[in-house]
UniProtKB/TrEMBL annotation:
Single GO molecular function: hydrolase activity
Species assigned in the record: Methylobacterium indicum
Protein name per Swiss-Prot or TrEMBL: 2-pyrone-4,6-dicarboxylate hydrolase
UniProt keyword terms in alphabetical order: Hydrolase, Signal
Residue ranges occupied by any Amidohydrolase-related domain in the UniProt entry: 53-314
InterPro entries, alphabetized: Amidohydro-rel, Aro_Compnd_Degr_Hydrolases, Metal_Hydrolase, TAT_signal
Length: 314
């Protein structure tokens, strides 16, 4: 016999409230539906002031995709994202360059400027980037460079070291989106970098291994010796158990919280470009996972507020 969760009850109440609104001649605006996000509820977790979404993207067909890019989602605009911010109660955000646009960072810079002082950005750059361009990007609010091995469209991974050397004086970081096995292969390179590494999506360590995967030890060592960071993002990407709780990813997330809560940040990964249009996660539910992964409100505040302030310079 199935049982209803509190979220199920709230969803039914929300549905009833929307229906009642129509019956009384009102509008369903309170439902707070947001493009590319399922669900309509606000998060249950107490969201602290200056809470930060450290990982989301903006897409706009005005800007051409990189020729090699295979991930080409529909538009997800600044105003769409602002609606998500209002729903979640977040006030700071980090726009991450997607593989779709490769090293053409024009939309990224435009977006960070439009969001204003409460936003930062992570670009994609190759080894040809000049000191003048880096200064321009720094003034625009860019604070890191993303490299990836999972999807085509960005700079080659061989450019990682030369780019890291060029950004070291700016106090930026390298953001890496890579599989657990590849992280093991890159260990020596990552240990040589003159800047910290930020691992996307909990290092993409696969299930069911999670924290037992040898890549976890590599990340843990880099946290201890090189000041690495981990993004508690993308729980839905490698989950085998699925929504709403993505419960199989909780063991990995809790392991990172137990290991180094001062080196963790959270992000939505909106608009969830690798998820099908009809299967987008509930972003309020993703934020609520923090209550399970890090039950202490003081730790939640670190992950949502003080850690991002240190990493991105808010």
């Amino acid at each position: 016999m199935s049982t209803m969760t509190r979220r199920d009850h709230l969803a039914l109440l929300a549905t009833g409230s929307v229906a009642a609104g129509f019956a009384l001649g009102g509008t369903p605006a309170a439902a707070q539906a947001v493009r590319w996000s399922s669900g309509t509820e606000k998060p249950r977790i107490a969201v602290p002031a200056n809470a930060t979404d450290c990982h989301h993207h903006i897409y706009d067909a005005r800007f051409p995709p990189a020729p090699a890019a295979t991930l080409r989602p529909p538009d997800a605009s600044i105003e769409d994202y602002r609606a998500l911010q209002r729903r979640l109660g977040l006030t700071r955000n980090v726009v991450v360059q997607p593989s779709t646009y490769g090293t053409d960072n024009r939309l990224l810079v435009e977006s960070v400027k439009a969001f204003g002082p409460s936003a930062r950005g992570v670009a994609m750059l190759d080894a040809s980037v000049t000191a003048d361009e880096l200064r321009r990007l720094d003034e625009a609010g860019i604070r890191g460079v993303r490299f990836g091995t999972r999807l085509p469209g960005g700079a080659p991974i061989t450019d990682l070291e030369p780019v890291a050397r060029k950004i070291a004086d700016l106090g930026w970081h390298i953001q890496l989106v890579s599989e657990g096995e590849k992280i093991i292969e890159l260990r020596d390179v990552l240990e040589r970098l003159p800047v910290p590494v930020v691992f996307d999506h909990m290092g993409h360590l696969p299930e069911p291994a999670g924290p037992d995967h040898p890549g976890f030890r590599v990340i843990a060592d880099l946290i201890a010796t090189r000041g690495a960071w981990v993004k508690l993002t993308g729980a839905y990407i490698l989950s085998k158990s699925g929504p709403p709780l993505y419960a199989d990813r909780s063991r990995l997330a809790r392991a990172f919280v137990a290991l180094a809560p001062e080196r963790l940040v959270w992000g939505s990964d909106w608009p969830h470009p690798t998820a099908p249009a009809e299967g987008k996660p509930d972003d309020a539910g993703l934020l609520d996972l923090l209550a399970d992964w890090a039950p202490d409100p003081a730790v939640q505040a670190k992950i949502l507020v003080s850690n991002p302030a240190r990493l991105y310079g808010f």
